[in-house]
């Protein structure tokens, strides 16, 4: 398929999503891989100071990111004696990403606090189901889906997103990938979207690093429904940025209410793991103590 044909197919698919009030969600998983911390990035090795009584904290990133988006959070949690790991999120679709994480979790010994940012919330909600070692779920600027809900449905459920668009080509660079179904493509954020819509409280240098290192999300992941939610049996916490322009705070609050999630709000953008790592680490610590 030539590039022009791919563009037409993908644009038609994404435009249909936008028409159904899903357009806002197509930016939902953005998290900056840049961090103010110079700490190690992903899959940190066990901290020698960690005690056997403390759970392992597993951090799951969203799209346009990798484990380094948690750098500042990792530094703080390790200084408190926690073992922290940040495995890769494949970003191919809710069911397959959750299956990947579920298999990873089976290799972690002892109790777990499972943390997801943005689209990572979709993944942890499904991956933790049936795993008795997961003692707490923590949602950071994240989707908290009920059964059958998609990320697109949640993000478009409340006004306030600054990224609802009629033409997805104004927001994304669309790139083909092997095995993609007709109309599907990898989504890369355009630089102006990074700067204006979700990284507004980061420095220009951090924004530029996000632009350069982003990992894409498959467009088809936006409309995939969530399965039975793990939050029905596992206590949950949520940190919501009041300046979130990706998933409106009201949408996050509504889903948190359904899930009986304990909510804390802060004055931050969608990228609180990068801009407010201390607040994120504090909430994870609270969940770890309660679990």
Q: Roughly how many Å is the radius of gyration? A: 18 Å
Cα end-to-end separation: 51 Å
Counting DSSP E segments of at least 2 residues, the number of strands comes to 9
The largest β sheet comes out as: 6 strands, parallel
**Beta-strand share of residues:** 5-15%
Structural class: alpha/beta
Helix residue percentage: 25-40%
| CATH architecture descriptor | 3-Layer(aba) Sandwich
Poorly predicted spans: 1-10, 12-49
How many helices? The count is: 10
Q: Biggest sheet: strands side by side, in what order?
A: 2-1-3-4-8-9
Q: Based on Cα principal axes, name the global outline.
A: globular
Taking all residues together, what is the mean pLDDT?
84
Overall structural domain count = 1
CATH topology (fold) name:
Rossmann fold
CATH C-level class is Alpha Beta
Look at the structure and name the CATH superfamily: Alpha/Beta hydrolase fold, catalytic domain
Q: What is the element string, with H for helices and E for strands?
A: HEHEHEHEHEEHHEEHEHH
């Amino acid at each position: 398929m030539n590039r022009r044909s791919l563009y037409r197919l993908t644009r038609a698919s994404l435009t249909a999503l936008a028409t159904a009030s899903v357009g806002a969600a197509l930016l939902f998983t953005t998290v900056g891989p840049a961090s103010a911390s110079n700490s190690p990035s992903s899959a940190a090795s066990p901290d020698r100071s960690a005690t056997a009584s403390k759970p392992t904290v597993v951090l799951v990133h969203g799209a346009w990111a990798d484990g380094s988006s948690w750098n500042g959070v990792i530094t703080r949690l390790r200084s408190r004696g926690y073992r922290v790991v940040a495995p890769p999120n494949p970003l191919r679709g809710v069911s397959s990403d959750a299956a990947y994480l579920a298999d990873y979790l089976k290799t972690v010994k002892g109790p777990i606090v499972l943390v997801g940012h943005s689209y990572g919330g979709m993944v942890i909600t499904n991956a933790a189901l049936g795993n008795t070692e997961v003692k707490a779920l923590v949602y950071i600027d994240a989707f908290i889906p009920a059964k059958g809900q998609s990320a697109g449905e949640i993000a478009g459920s409340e006004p306030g997103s600054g990224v609802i668009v009629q033409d997805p080509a104004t927001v994304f660079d669309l790139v083909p990938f092997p095995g993609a179904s007709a109309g599907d493509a990898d989504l890369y954020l355009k630089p102006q979207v990074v700067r204006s819509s979700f990284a507004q409280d980061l420095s220009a240098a951090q924004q530029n690093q996000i632009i350069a290192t982003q990992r894409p999300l498959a467009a088809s992941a936006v409309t995939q429904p969530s399965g039975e939610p793990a939050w029905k049996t596992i206590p949950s916490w949520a940190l919501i940025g009041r300046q979130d322009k990706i998933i409106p705070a009201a949408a996050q609050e509504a889903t948190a209410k359904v899930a009986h999630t304990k909510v804390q709000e802060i004055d931050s953008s969608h990228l609180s793991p990068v801009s407010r790592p201390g607040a994120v680490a504090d909430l994870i610590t609270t969940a770890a103590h309660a679990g």
